[in-house]
Design goal:
With about 425 residues, this protein is an alpha/beta fold. Among the domains are: about 130 residues, Leucine Dehydrogenase, chain A, domain 1 (Rossmann fold, 3-Layer(aba) Sandwich), CATH 3.40.50.10860; about 150 residues, 3-Layer(aba) Sandwich (Rossmann fold). A hairpin with a 2-residue loop joins β7 and β8. It is globular.
Length: about 425
């Protein structure tokens, strides 16, 4: 029963944010009904053989939420907490994330309910190939283009691409993004989400009059998003005073040595045992006095239970759905600015789009070109969101949804409804 309540709340949060923006856009009821229902939800069993010879069965999901602007786009998540409702919410968010940065994609998301940390490399490969085989008929460069997400890696994307290519009897690198460079991946893809988050954060800091030099940054999560963002903040002269991963949080009022922390995490595969700062709890980290708080872990980290104690001027959502609607309203009342997830972490899908385009053209770009184009897309569209927020006197989140919904509705109105 507890899990069912959680499932309802994940998609419920997504719908709540959508409804706030939809009210301001005066969407007619039929269009609102269309936009709050997924196009396709797929659930299937994944039988596989453990290294011991034991047969086991996991559950796989793929949700293709909307195709109005192009093929579905979204990651594949391997995590014990994966549910249909979570995947549906994430696919819903991907629809708006792609639209708000003006990419020719719809929204999708997938996942397998498993713990990848307990699986061998061989077991992961068998699960991935079976997962890909179940989806061969509904994915493809012009249908649905998966990518890495929580618990998945470029290697897993390589297995997915190879399985799909074997089934369709041709080499199809564009079926997934986030692949290794050797088989068509894009330079700059791994760093893209963290890079994009720091770009918009620094832009908003300048708008708010926060000088990056010495600005105090707190980052929850130290994977690809958190670690890259931390390094970029440090490079900009900011003082990163706390970081964390699942092993705990590490803080220093004088600022952490981020290069050292990144090297430690790469060597030990976590921050566990890191001596560069004082160990505190993840809960305490979220309540530290800072200029910028970057939640870059999982959903619902900022909620009604801790929102009143959050002590940041700016929140930059590196993760998907880290703030509940109730907490978001508290932040607005308290004058805390939030850059929403659909903008802040859109750097990953933007460079995924670049990878998809490179695969279709058969021409790879230099990393400097990727980073330059990423900055153009992120900052141009963030400026549009900021201007709309100012024009309509609404929070950045509402403005982002308004811009994204307007773009999707425009595409749906031009295409019409095939009924």
């Amino acid at each position: 029963m507890m899990q069912a309540a959680r499932e309802v709340s994940v998609f419920g949060d997504a719908i709540a944010y959508f409804n706030e923006a939809a009210e301001l856009l005066d969407l007619e009821p039929g269009m609102r009904r269309l936009l709050t229902k997924p196009s396709r939800q797929i659930i299937f069993s994944i039988p596989f053989q453990r290294d011991s010879g034991e047969l086991e069965v996991f559950t796989g999901y793929r949700v293709q939420y909307n195709f109005a602007r192009g093929p579905a786009k979204g990651g594949i998540r391997y995590h014990p907490g994966v549910t249909l409702d979570e995947v549906t919410a994430l696919a819903f968010w991907m629809t708006w994330k792609c639209a708000v940065v003006d990419l020719p994609f719809g929204g999708g998301k997938g996942g397998v309910t498993c713990d990848p940390l307990t699986l061998s490399k061989g077991e992961l490969e068998r699960i991935t190939r079976r997962y890909a085989a179940e989806l061969v008929e509904v994915v493809g460069p012009d249908k649905d283009v998966p990518a890495p997400d929580v618990g998945t890696t470029p290697q897993i994307m390589a297995w997915f691409m190879d399985t799909y290519s074997m089934h369709v009897r041709q080499h199809v690198p564009g079926v997934v993004t986030g692949k290794p460079l050797e088989i068509g991946g894009s330079r700059g893809r791994v760093e893209a989400t963290g890079r994009g988050a720091s770009l918009v954060a620094l832009a908003q800091m300048r708008r708010m009059g926060i000088d990056p030099k010495g600005a105090r940054i707190v980052i929850q999560g130290f994977g690809n998003v958190g670690s890259v963002a931390a390094q970029m903040f440090a490079d900009a002269g900011c003082k990163v005073i706390a970081i964390s991963d699942v092993t705990g949080a590490y803080a220093s009022e004088t600022g952490l040595d981020i290069a050292n922390a990144v090297a430690y995490a790469q060597e030990h595969h976590s921050l566990d045992g890191f001596r560069g700062g004082d160990k505190i709890t993840n809960d305490a980290l979220l309540e530290l006095d800072c200029d910028v708080l970057v939640p870059a872990a999982l959903e619902k980290q900022l909620n009604v239970g801790n929102a009143a104690r959050v002590n940041a001027k700016l929140i930059v959502e590196g993760a998907n759905g880290p703030t509940t609607p109730d907490a978001d309203h508290i932040f607005t009342q308290r004058g805390i600015t939030t850059i929403p997830d659909i903008v802040a972490n859109a750097g990953g899908v933007t460079v995924s789009y670049f990878e998809w385009a490179q695969n279709r053209a058969g021409y790879p770009w230099k990393e400097s070109e990727v980073n330059e184009r990423l900055a153009d897309v992120m900052l141009d569209n963030f400026a549009k969101v900021s201007d709309l927020a100012q024009l309509r006197n609404v929070p950045l989140r509402t403005a982002a949804y308004m811009l994204a919904i307007d773009r999707v509705v425009a595409s749906m109105n031009v295409r019409g409804v095939y009924a």
